Structure formats: C-alpha cells, structure tokens
Request: fold
Amino acid sequence: MKITREVVQGLYKQTGTARVDADVAASFKVGDAIQARNINPTGHTRLPRYIRGKQGRIATDHGVFKFADSLAHGGGNQPQHLYSVRFDAQELWGAAAPAQDCLYIDLWDDYLEPA
Amino acid sequence: MTSDNDVALRVRALESLLLEKGLVEAPAIDEIIDLFENRLGPQNGAKVIARAWSDPDFKARLLANATDAIVEMGYEAVQGEDMVVVENTAQVHNIVVCTLCSCFPWATLGLPPVWYKSAPYRARAASDPRGVLAEFGTDIAAEAEVRVWDSNAELRYMVLPERPAGSESLDEEALVALVTRDSMIGVTRALNP
Reply:
C-alpha cells in the first residue's frame, strides 16, 4: 500500500481509546483494600512484577476498558474495570522508603483480589 | 560517532528511495513532519498549564477531566485519548514513568525523550524517585509526599507544576515560557521568571 497524506491523517485522527461503552460490573469500589495477584503469564501483561503480591487501595475507577493482556494475543476485548491503585512506597520497596511516599498504577479487575 | 551530516544524508537517501519506489508520497512525509514539529509536542502542554495557572475554572476542569479540557483547547487526541493531570503543590510532588515501556502523551508532550525510555529511569523513577529527582536537580522536602504515576496501561499522565513564585504579574502568554516538558513529566519544577 502506498502511504499518502490521507493514510497519515487517518492514523492520528482515529481515536485510539481502549475505553469501552459496556455494562460490566466492577468487582471493587474506591477505598477497597486489594492485593495484586501473583501471576506469571508467559505472554503480554501490564501487571509488572514489582506489583505482584503487593497490597494497595483503589484510588479511582477509570471505567471499563479493553483488557490489554487478552487483546495482545487475539483473545478479544474482555472488557473490564480499570482502576488507579495506590501502593505505599514501603509496601513496594521496604521500610527504608519514606512512609508518606506512594505509587499509583492502573490495574484491571483480573489482576486484583480482595486484601 | 555519527555526525548530524551523516544522519541527514542517510535520511535523504531513504526518502529518495521510498519516493522513487512509489512506497510513500511526498505530501505524506510533509504531513508527518508538520504533525511532529507543529501540532504535537510540549508547546501544547505548556499552553494547557499556563491556562490552568491563569484560569481557576479551567484548572478545575483539567483536574476533573483532563481529556475533555485538553480537547477543548483544540489539541489532537493522539496518545492522549484518556488523560489524567495531577497537581504539584508544596506538600505533594508527582512524577510520571512508564515502567513497562515508554507510554507518553504525544499531543501535549510530544515523543518521549531518550532518557524516559531508558531502563535505568524506568526502574529508578519507581523505586527511588527522590534519588532520580535529586539527579535532575530537584530537591524535595523530607516531609513532602512523592507520588509516582506508572502509566503502564491505557491512561496517559501529565503533571501540573506549581506556578513559580514571582510569576504573579505574568499573563497567560508569558507563563507559557516557564513550562518545560520535564516539568510536565515531574522531574523538574517550572522555570523561575
């Protein structure tokens, strides 16, 4: 295919949002204590190792998004809630980290279990 | 060591080949250059921040729904379809990283700098943000709270830096010059007037 001006315009005009307008129940609500599952998938995941098994709290519910882990392998959208989750720096990095510091990361429902 | 001259020659040779073989049309190349030089980049983010400093209603909208507030200013949504803006204050300092790759809000900040994509930044911004900030020359009070934002998934993050002391008399246009790309990633503060 020849790359024309229209092709380039199409690439950045199309909305790339992974947000889905689907009625999917949320497993958690803001304020809930959670633990990230300790999973070790061989394929694509957006759950980094430093978060696995760690405990945090739901800060924001972003709404329903396509699930990157399944999309990357042709497994379909598997739409589910995506949350901003707050972890204390000490939970992630140990007692030497400042007590008030923290890290926020966006995690899908499938990564989480109640703490 | 490759000089800028060598790179320019190589790019010209590649462009000629792509055009001669009919793979790319010249207007497509012009479009890409215009997009990344003029329409996407930190000059857009700086205008968003300057407006937030000048207009409390816009700031409230930006912090509540950054995606809509940025589109309201007329910027493209590319790699900024779902934006979050977090506010730095005297008590809270925010810093953005993508630990998994290089996710970055193109429309407001442009393409990510090389250091942002480097493994050391991606690892250390998460595990030792105060150390990284000190290397950027940014001192954080011991009692302040440092918040790291890992943009690992579908949201894209931008920091609203603190408005610098001494900038009270500046209008929105003059404020734009104080907002750097790095201050919107959160590794530095905005410039002093």
